[in-house]
Write a structure and sequence with these properties.
heterotrimer; A alpha/beta (401); B mainly alpha (290); C mainly alpha (321); A: 401 residues; Rossmann fold; seven-stranded mixed sheet; five-stranded parallel sheet; 14 strands; disordered N terminus; C: mainly alpha; two-stranded antiparallel sheet; 78% helix; 1% strand; transmembrane helix (chain C); cell membrane (chain C)
């Protein structure tokens, strides 16, 4: 039996349903899309994977805690793009992300990728938050859409020198002669040049600056020179593989300086290195990006990484913090509008991140509070030794044996 | 300037490194000499071999030196299969196409390794890689000394195989005169595959020797490829003693160049030799007259 | 040059010129990158496809063009268009020099290929070491959008510019191929000794080819620099571009007018297609899409040994029967 006319009850029900719908719509506001650009394949895939993990954890955290309050509890949705470890692919992915309607992009990791990608984003006034890329040009360029959450070269170098001086003075100045070993790419060469200029001003003598290519097949010559120069302090800035080679070769050649003070080193504050070479790693110091070790969220994040079987690296907390920073900016802007988000970032004073930076404050796109910390490998773990506000261990310097 | 003892030790280190390079180049020169193809996949194959050696160690605790026989055999078979059923048929005998096919192969292999092992850099744990042997004032790495010996041995074995066995004669025949060899009943496809297999077996040996002192990630083979090409050209394409001596020479130049110019600019030394040899003596030290 | 040589090419380019009407910015950017590679490949094609001298080191010309225009703009305040012209001239000069050294030494085949590779690597190491080229930090061209500075924020405008240049080179290639120079190139490629015996000055022909080739690829380098505004030694002189132009030409059909363009588009297209097709899996498992791409390459060579153009020609002949 069919009734061609809808019964009144059904109509009333439908009407009530229609009235109720705005409430339903309100309860599910459109998700806010944030782009995550990381080198997921190619030479930098290891770090890219960590960056993505950090971003995903941040999104999960935000969504589990009510989403974006000013937008009615809107969820954060990440759009992950693979920069393929080269700047051209990075720029291409930015075009795609822009087409997907993201409100901002986070990441890049390597300086050349960050440079190309942030510039591509600038064409659309799409805010771009750099996670790691340290080249000073990234913010010195003067692009209004580009923000860097972490420190750049200049900040890292001055902190490294300052902390080294403090370290040395605190131990009674045991170190005077220094040898710089660096990879011959953008970050290694830039760093070495700055250090070679700054260190002599504080009474250190730079015996030699030794560049090496990446990849390097052999570190024996460098070890030989170290053996003949006998510096008090070795300052290495290399990627993971090369530093591992150097550390092993040094042990082989029985070269034991009073301290190994790495800066932005790929292995010195890397848990894989500590686990696989406990003897070579003992006492090695690094001046690098690191999370606030006393922050509860940071500790939870590290536990999550351990459960997921990831080796911890700074790209995790940095991307975690950047995604939270952007979400906060969207919240302050009150809408998923690029222009307003850019303004919100520029005026941001966000403290909900997990890095030891204090509240954010961007001047010309650079977060002023951003700074590296000093770590040291002690008891098979990586501890923070400077600055004292975030330290969870005392430095052991000079290293014995 | 540097003290003579330092220069001497750098020279010795260079020779030790050069032996490893020579082993990597052996496979390449053999393949070029017989198949007349430049094998773009050489680096990726070396990476595969290094992962295999690392894997055996990680899974069964097998010492890399003990892995040499099984891996050499396994990679011989792998190389044979690759040439017989992938590279050979796809190229239709055209050099340009072979380049593309080996390039495609290298992309497939490298990314397969990336998919399986991720991009983490791995090393052999433990202290075996640290052992040194004291020779006068010099501290020489034991694994590299062993590597030197095994490289020489492998080169000698390969040379013996080529000159004294029937297979070797068949290979040389096909290299010199393919049509003639076919006429006397030699199957060039089989010979090509055997040659490629031998080249891969050499890579397997090189991988086992490199692993204790080096590291492994999906891109590690690339570091050795250009050097291998230089050695092949220097020693003469197709010449085994040439590859060995060329390897030692290049290792020496790299080490001393690195000492005097810094490791980065020192790489120039290798390419300058490369260019000079090509311009003035392209057949290399021991190659056949062009 | 006959109409049938250039019409298919011009048709393809005209279709691409209409792309901005329907395509997203991401697609336009993709086309732009592919066409810059296509231009570089057109350069390679003259030397490798027509003259038969396979080069593994075209990065040497690409990087020279890129660095030339960047250095001229940054240190000498030269206008970007002039930088492009000078970059092309320098690329041709470097080509001539490499050719002079190599061809005089009678290097052929794999030997020539390897020496070009070595030259490119030497340039890369030098560019990484010296301040003139910015050393390891590279060079950053100042962002100043505007036609006068050869900087186009609009993807469509830049695309049309590159299309125009590709079309011009297409016409140039067809004109050369159809004329006496083309005949000499082919003669040298097929049998250099016989060509010499017939009175062809093989050295001059090859030098001309490599100079022209260098200039065209250098133009691609200049445009690349203007697109990204940042370069370092690995971007400019890295092996990636040498390999891409090589693949593009062989895949598309070397020694044909349209081959490099089709090859570059097919190459990049296959890469993107592989990425999109495997997007679901490529997330947790890196590298799968590139594996597919490598496999596609092998299959393409196996079943299309004369490249896409060769395959099309065979199909056309088949249809005509």
């Amino acid at each position: 039996m069919t009734n061609p006319h809808l019964p009144r009850r059904a109509l009333l029900g439908a009407g009530a349903g229609l009235l109720a719908m705005p409430a339903v719509l309100r309860a599910q506001p459109a998700a806010v899309r944030i782009g995550v650009l990381q080198p997921l394949t190619g030479a930098l895939a290891q770090d890219g994977d960590l960056g993505r993990f950090g971003a995903e954890q941040a999104a999960a955290f935000i969504n589990a805690n009510g989403g974006l309050s000013a937008l009615g509890g809107a969820k954060v949705e990440l759009v992950v793009a693979d920069a393929r470890s080269n700047p051209e692919a990075g720029a291409q992915e930015v075009e795609k992300l822009q087409g997907e309607g993201v409100v901002a992009i986070v990441g890049g990791f390597a300086s050349p990728i960050c440079l190309a990608a942030s510039q591509a984003a600038a064409r659309y006034d799409l805010p771009y938050v750099v996670d790691v890329g340290v080249a000073d040009q990234i913010t010195a360029r003067g692009l209004a859409n580009t923000f860097r959450f972490a420190p750049g070269f200049a900040a890292v170098t001055s902190a490294a020198v300052e902390n080294l001086v403090r370290l040395n003075d605190g131990a009674g100045k045991p170190c005077k002669t220094v040898v710089l070993v660096h990879e011959d790419g953008l970050f290694g060469s830039g760093l070495a040049r700055l250090m070679a200029t700054e260190l002599p001003k504080h009474g250190f003598e730079v015996l030699e600056t030794i560049p090496h290519p990446t990849p390097a097949r052999d570190m024996n010559n460098i070890a030989l020179r170290l053996r003949s120069l006998r510096p008090d302090l070795l300052i290495p800035s290399s990627y993971y593989g090369e530093f591992v080679l150097l550390a092993r070769t040094m042990r082989q050649q029985r070269i034991r300086p009073k301290g190994i003070y790495a800066v932005l080193n790929g292995a010195a504050s890397n848990y894989r290195f500590v686990k696989e070479f406990p003897d070579a790693a003992l006492g090695v110091m690094d001046c690098n990006h690191w999370q606030d070790p006393k922050n509860a969220e940071a500790i939870a994040l590290k536990a999550a990484a351990d459960t997921a079987g990831k080796f911890w690296g700074y790209n995790i907390p940095l991307n975690y913090s950047c995604v939270k920073l952007v979400a906060d900016a969207v919240n302050r802007a009150g809408a998923a509008d690029r222009g307003r988000v850019t303004q919100a970032l520029a005026a941001s004073d966000y403290s909900g991140h997990i890095m030891p930076y204090g509240p954010t404050r961007f001047v010309n796109g650079q977060n002023q509070g951003a700074r590296p910390v000093n770590t040291q490998v002690q008891d098979g773990d990586i501890k923070v030794i400077f600055p004292s506000e975030v330290a969870n261990a005392r430095p052991v310097f000079p290293i014995q044996g | 300037m540097f003290p003579p003892a330092l220069i001497a030790e750098a020279a010795v280190n260079g020779l030790l490194a050069g032996a490893a390079y020579a082993l990597v180049a052996l496979g390449l020169t053999l393949v070029y000499g017989v198949l007349h193809i430049v094998n773009f996949a050489h680096g990726a194959l070396l990476t595969c071999a290094m992962f295999a050696a690392w894997g055996l160690h990680a899974a069964f605790g097998l010492d890399p030196y003990l892995s040499i026989p099984p891996l050499a055999l396994a990679f011989f078979a792998f190389g044979y299969a690759l040439q017989r059923w992938v590279i050979g048929p796809s190229s239709h005998g055209d050099d340009g196409n072979t380049l593309l096919v080996t390039l495609g192969l290298s992309i497939v292999l490298e990314n397969a390794l990336l998919a399986l092992f991720r991009s983490d850099t791995r090393t052999l744990g433990g202290d075996a890689g640290f052992d040194v042997v004291e020779v006068g004032p010099m501290l020489l790495s034991r694994p590299r000394l062993i590597g030197f010996g095994v490289a020489l041995l492998t080169a000698a074995l390969l040379w013996a195989l080529l000159s004294a066995t029937d297979t070797g004669r068949a290979i040389r025949a096909v290299a010199k005169e393919k049509l003639g060899a076919q006429l006397v009943g030699i199957d060039p496809r089989h010979v090509y595959a055997v040659t490629f297999g031998l080249g891969c077996a050499c890579l397997a040996v090189a991988a086992c020797l490199l692993l204790p002192t080096f590291y492994v990630n999906p891109r590690v083979g690339n570091a050795f490829v250009l050097v291998a090409f230089t050695i092949v050209v220097l020693g003469g394409m197709g010449s085994i003693p040439g590859a060995l001596l060329g390897g030692l020479f290049v290792g020496l130049v790299e080490s001393l160049g690195g000492l005097f110019l810094g490791d980065s600019l020192g790489q120039l030394g290798i390419f300058v030799i490369f260019i000079l040899v090509l311009l003035f003596r392209p057949t290399g030290l021991f190659g056949a007259k062009a | 040059m006959k109409a049938r040589d250039i019409l298919p090419g011009l048709l393809v380019l005209a279709l691409l010129a209409l792309a901005p009407l329907v395509a997203s910015n991401a697609a336009l950017n993709f086309l732009l990158s592919s066409l810059i590679v296509a231009l570089a490949a057109q350069g390679w094609n003259l030397l490798g496809g027509y003259a038969g001298q396979l080069s593994f080191g075209h990065a040497a010309f690409f990087g020279t063009g890129a660095y030339a225009t960047a250095i001229l703009q940054l240190r000498y305040g030269v206008n970007a268009w002039a930088g492009l012209a000078i970059g092309v001239a320098l690329g041709a000069l470097v080509g001539w020099m490499i050719g002079f050294l190599s061809f005089r030494a009678r290097l052929r085949g794999s030997y020539f290929a390897l020496v070009t590779l070595a030259f490119a690597e030497v340039l890369r190491i030098l560019a990484n070491a010296f301040d003139l080229t910015g050393g390891a930090a590279g060079l950053l061209i100042r962002m100043a959008p505007g036609a006068a500075n050869l900087q186009f924020p609009s993807r469509a405008t830049f695309l049309w510019l590159v299309l125009a240049i590709v079309a011009a080179v297409l016409l140039l290639t067809a004109w050369i191929a159809g004329g006496r120079m083309g005949a000499r190139l082919v003669a040298v490629r097929e049998n250099e000794d016989a060509a010499r015996a017939l009175g062809v000055d093989a050295l001059r022909v090859k030098l001309g080819a490599i100079a022209l080739s260098g200039g065209i690829t250098a133009a691609a380098g200049c445009l690349y620099a203007q697109n990204f505004l940042y370069l370092d030694a690995n971007i400019a002189y890295g092996t990636w571009i040498s390999v891409e132009v090589l693949i593009a030409c062989i895949l598309g059909g070397s020694g044909t007018v349209l081959g490099p363009v089709i090859g570059a588009l097919a190459l990049h297209g296959a890469g993107e297609a592989a990425k999109i097709a495997l997007n679901g899996i490529a997330g947790p498992v890196p590298g799968i899409d590139l594996m597919l791409f490598g496999a596609l390459l092998i299959l393409a060579v196996a079943f299309l040994p004369q490249g896409v153009m060769g395959g099309l020609r065979r199909a056309a002949r088949g249809l005509a029967r």
